[in-house]
């Protein structure tokens, strides 16, 4: 058991932190929601009722879709685009999808390679792009969840102000929806830009996201 925990420590650590922060968001969100309810003359709600509400769903989905957009773009754009000196980039001469031999697929697959790496056709094509496809799919589903929960939450606020509710189509083309989305997108894109650019000149000893401390700034695609 200890060996399993050690081998999966990074995933387990982030899973625990995710669950703790999600629980914290639910508790803080309930307190904030109830405070607003009292201001508007409404009744406070329980934690369970809040976490099953459109208000909680839209906040969670909004964050998820921006995170998965970040990963989808970074995974796919780094196939062809490079950044000299960054360990987050391939070397300029390695840009592209690589040969079958480099990718260990088809006749070049190892005995312990995944089964779909050993075959051709649609299965190999799907598996070759499965990471990007799943990240893109989760982004789209999270975006849809945000839009559906968002229009419900938005209409609840409009009804409190004695205004007519709007349709889903009207909501997803509204400043309200795009202001929420673009706030998150710009922060995620800035985070990726910072990681790519700062890792050219700065180091973190022992981290695979950094070059070796003594590596020249111009070294590209080298991890410490």
Description:
- The protein has helices at residues 2-7, 9-39, 47-51, 54-77, 100-103, 121-128, 130-160, 168-172, 175-201.
- It has 9 helices and no strands.
- The chain folds into 2 domains: 1-52; 63-224, no CATH class.
- The protein is mainly alpha-helical.
- 63% of the residues lie in helices and 0% in strands.
- Helix 4 (54-77) packs antiparallel against helix 7 (130-160) and helix 4 crosses helix 9.
- The radius of gyration is 23 Å and the shape is elongated.
- The protein starts with a helix and ends in a 23-residue tail after the last helix.
Q: Which short descriptors sum up this protein?
A:
224 residues; mainly alpha
Helix and strand arrangement:
Blueprint: H1 2-7, H2 9-39, H3 47-51, H4 54-77, H5 100-103, H6 121-128, H7 130-160, H8 168-172, H9 175-201
Helix pairs in contact: 4-7, 4-9
**Which spans of ≥5 residues are poorly predicted at pLDDT below 50?**
none
Q: Tell me the total number of β-strands.
A: 0
Strand content: under 5%
Order of helices and strands: HHHHHHHHH
**Shape estimate:** elongated
Question: How helix-rich are the residues, as a percent range?
Answer: 55-70%
Report the biggest beta sheet as strand number plus sense, adding barrel if it closes.
none
Q: Using the CA coordinates, give the radius of gyration.
A: 23 Å
| Helix segment tally | 9
Q: Give the mean pLDDT.
A: 91
Q: What is the end-to-end distance?
A: 29 Å
Structural class of the helix and strand makeup?
mainly alpha
Tell me the count of domains. Answer: 2
């Amino acid at each position: 058991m200890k060996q399993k925990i050690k081998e999966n420590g990074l995933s387990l650590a982030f899973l625990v932190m995710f669950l703790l922060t999600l629980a914290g968001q639910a508790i803080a969100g309930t307190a904030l929601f109830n405070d607003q309810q009292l201001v508007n003359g409404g009744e406070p709600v329980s934690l369970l009722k809040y976490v099953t509400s459109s208000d909680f769903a839209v906040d969670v989905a909004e964050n998820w879709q921006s995170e998965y957009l970040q990963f989808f773009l970074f995974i796919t754009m780094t196939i062809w685009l490079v950044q000299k000196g960054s360990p987050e980039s391939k070397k300029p001469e390695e840009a592209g999808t690589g040969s079958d031999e480099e990718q260990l697929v088809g006749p070049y697959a190892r005995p312990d390679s995944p089964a779909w790496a050993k075959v051709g056709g649609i299965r190999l094509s799907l598996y070759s792009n499965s990471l990007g496809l799943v990240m893109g799919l989760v982004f789209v589903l999270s975006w849809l969840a945000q839009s559906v929960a968002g229009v419900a939450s938005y209409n609840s606020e409009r009804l409190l102000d004695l205004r007519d509710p709007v349709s889903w189509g009207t909501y997803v083309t509204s400043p309200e929806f795009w202001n929420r989305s673009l706030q998150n997108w710009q922060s995620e894109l800035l985070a990726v830009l910072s990681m790519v650019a700062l890792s050219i000149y700065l180091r973190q000893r022992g981290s695979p996201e950094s070059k070796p401390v003594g590596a020249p700034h111009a070294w590209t695609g080298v991890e410490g």
